[in-house]
Automatic annotation (TrEMBL):
Protein name: Receptor-like serine/threonine-protein kinase
Region (Disordered), start-end ranges: 446-466
Lineage: Eukaryota, Viridiplantae, Streptophyta, Embryophyta, Tracheophyta
Subcellular location: Membrane
UniProt key word Protein transport: no
CDD domains the record matches: STKc_IRAK
UniProt entry keywords in alphabetical sequence: ATP-binding, Disulfide bond, EGF-like domain, Glycoprotein, Kinase, Lectin, Membrane, Nucleotide-binding, Receptor, Serine/threonine-protein kinase, Signal, Transferase, Transmembrane, Transmembrane helix
EC number(s) recorded for this UniProt protein: 2.7.11.1
Annotated Bulb-type lectin domain residues: 26-157
Species this protein is from: Lithocarpus litseifolius
Biased segments, Polar residues type: 447-457
Pfam families in UniProt: B_lectin (PF01453), Pkinase (PF00069)
Annotated TM spans: 473-503
Predominant subcellular localization, coarse grouping: membrane
Amino acid sequence: MVFVLPHLLVFLLVLLLPISSIAQNNGNVTVGNSLTATDNTTSWLSPSGDFAFGFRPLSNQKDLFLLSIWFDKIPDKTVVWYARDDQNIIIGGATPVPRGSKVELDADKGLVLTGPQGDELWRSNTIVGTVSYGGMRNTGNFVLQDSNSNNLWESFNKPTDTLLPSQIVERSAGVVLYSRQSETNFSKGRFLLKLQDDGDLVLNSINLPTDNPNDPYYKSGTAASAVDSGTSSPGARLVFNNSGYIYIQRENNQTFPLNQEKLGSTSDFYFRATLNFDGVFTQYSRPKTSNANGSWTSLWSIPGNICLATVSNSGSGTCGYNSICTLKLDQRPKCDCPVGYSLFDPSDQYGSCQPDFIQGCQEDKLSTGKDLYYFEVLIKTDWPNADYAFLKPYTEDQCKQSCMEDCMCAVAIFRLGDSCWKKKLPLSNGRVDDTLDGGKAFIKIRNGSSIPPQQGPHSPFNPESRKKNQDNLILVGSVLLGGSLFVNIILIIAICVGVYFIYHKKLKRPMTLSNVNSVETNMRCFTYQELVEATDGFKEELGKGAFGVVYKGAIEMGSSVPVAVKKLHSLFQDNEREFKTEVNVIGQTHHKNLVRLFGFCDEGQQRLLVYEFLSNGTLASFLFGDLKPSWKQRISIAVGIARGILYLHDECSTQIIHCDIKPQNILLDDYYNARIADFGLAKLLMMDQSHTRTAIRGTKGYVAPEWFRNMPITAKVDVYSFGVMLLEIICCRRSVDVEAIEEEKAILTDWAYDCYREGVLDALVEHDVEVLNDREKLEKYVMVAIWCIQEDPSLRPTMRRVTQMLEGVVEVLVPPCPCPFSRTVTMS
Ligand SMILES: *[C@@H]1O[C@H](CO)[C@@H](O)[C@H](O)[C@H]1NC(C)=O
Ligand SMILES: *[C@@H]1O[C@H](CO)[C@@H](O)[C@H](O)[C@H]1NC(C)=O
Ligand SMILES: *[C@@H]1O[C@H](CO)[C@@H](O)[C@H](O)[C@H]1NC(C)=O
Ligand SMILES: *[C@@H]1O[C@H](CO)[C@@H](O)[C@H](O)[C@H]1NC(C)=O
Ligand SMILES: *[C@@H]1O[C@H](CO)[C@@H](O)[C@H](O)[C@H]1NC(C)=O
Ligand SMILES: *[C@@H]1O[C@H](CO)[C@@H](O)[C@H](O)[C@H]1NC(C)=O
Ligand SMILES: *[C@@H]1O[C@H](CO)[C@@H](O)[C@H](O)[C@H]1NC(C)=O
């Protein structure tokens, strides 16, 4: 009975289905038929209706479609194949195509995909013979056949990242499965699966955009080389058989199973095996019946633990560089940045992490003070392969100190009681590994650098680190009590050495600290003469600002370092102490979106600040120049500035309000990262103006309304200016355009709100196609900007909120009109 019932069901289905689907489709498509990519596009269904071939809209890109095959009966329409151009490694293989593209069945060329203008984008290659029809088969295979029903082309022979039951990958065909970029981005990703010439099934990471592989992180062990007394025959094909079992079939027909478990019946379950975008190859099943609320269940995966598996000579591992991989219960990786680091691209959880501070030998030399760095401790964490020094025998304290004093060192690993590895950036293959019991990773973090918000996904290790430190103490204690005599002697020596060092430090400290003021511990104090020489007599002027004139120069620091020297207007003659305090506050800032202050000069009337020199000019010249920068670049600049301001507002020892945020005060470094300049100077100036109380700080067009009213000045003035500047970044135009032909366009903030309210953002960005292709983000950014330019400071979001909105962590609500205060407010 148990067996009869499913068969009876299948029999009934076979009887019923053709009748119900004949009306629309018998699975056959004749030459000349076509499909067009639109919102209500039709598709070519398999006779059973399980699979469909056609265009699927990309979930995150409204106007892009993917020519693909998908499970049509399940709500999430899981894609199992997509048109991919294997020749074109630069495009990355996948072919999301614009609205209006068309796929047509041609007798000679097979399937031909053309763009809205008729340009050919892709075709099913290697057709020999004349196609008479094509068909979506019940297995999920799309085939093209000639008049004698010979298969001329099959999607099963061109798999993308997924295999289905009855699909066979022949070693001789040289087929390779590539992962996607991400769950929703179908471009070629970082991992591949193939049956190698020697018969081994392997998983490799590759070095995009080329296919060049790193060492495999999984090997089936089915290669020809006979280890076990000459019996092993090489793997010939990877078989996903009709009952859902996956195995490697050797040349002698022996099978090497990849899964051993008993599976449900293919009449009750859908099966698929996918090389996921994170490099894990997984077989999934899903009940056919509970369509509405079923989901794919993972049956097994290779490798078993990808975090531990991806050590290779190059490549970052499954997570990006500097990231740490932990395995989730479903055998898929989770990637996190260590504390002190944050995601390079906030929308890519699996991408690389970058330090939130600047570290390097030149940087360290320029900051002569002690205690530049401190350590965060992680246990059971390692980044194999990034070490440049291996010290042994060495104590933990020696290990830490050695890393602390070495400007190349980013992380020190102490393990095995006497082994110390020093590691440099970028760190790769970061993982949490339970077998590294007792191993400690000391992550070097710049003192005073910004620590990302604790609640965010970026710093999961921070809240635990205190607890872990305690664990370490207990660990040291138990080693002392439980270890052998030899270990104890070593430890006692280590402690003595440690005490000696601490004692010496203590002795030295009062001497150095007594006559060094706080400014000098962080920055260099220049003489006026030194700066005259550095700038060649203030010869080359870089720009003029509200606070002074900037000159180009170079200082000698081992090598010649280009600098920008700002000569301040003489404003605060009798305030020497406060000048130093303020400069010290500025000097303690370390953030990748701020311009670094190297040093200062304070001699009589002469007050100068020495900044790092940035090569790519100001944001103003970048935005309003002849060439429009790309939308992606502008987005990353906007996010960078927001983070920089957030740091000034929330994460410095003393809050810094900039008061003059505008594109002229944003500089761009070699990589076009936004770096905020001139921060902290407003306070210096305001100190001076407490006597006068007349002038309005900031620059016309960017100035928050509270400056004109008798209202307290808070950090929200920067939010206002940021909002104005965000609109300028979106539109690549100045906030006030006196030459505007149409009067309603002259004031950008008004014009932007009008466009937003009337739903004509196309006009706001002057029909910039690149921006309009990303309409969702455009709309979000405009909404954020409108929130920022609210007249009422209390309605404006904080910079933390702004960054969260820009990064998509929180939703952006519909903003109110940024109109002048209502009467009640002005009255009060
Ligand atoms: C498709 O058409 C061919 C020839 O017209 C026929 O032999 C074949 O059975 C058809 N396939 C289906 C699934 O109807
Ligand atoms: C697509 O569907 C919409 C609404 O469902 C309808 O108004 C429109 O005419 C359809 N377009 C085509 C080409 O069928
Ligand atoms: C997918 O990722 C690639 C590489 O990161 C990128 O160039 C491409 O624009 C992305 N495609 C989509 C549709 O987001
Ligand atoms: C598929 O493979 C499994 C395991 O090797 C075997 O038990 C089963 O009979 C095979 N099914 C088919 C249809 O070949
Ligand atoms: C393997 O099986 C195929 C088909 O069943 C058969 O033709 C072939 O001779 C077999 N090879 C060996 C080495 O047994
Ligand atoms: C599906 O959802 C319904 C109600 O939401 C529930 O009663 C049913 O048990 C669910 N089925 C499965 C297989 O989870
Ligand atoms: C900076 O260094 C000092 C001295 O080592 C230390 O006491 C302090 O905790 C450090 N600051 C941070 C943020 O860790």
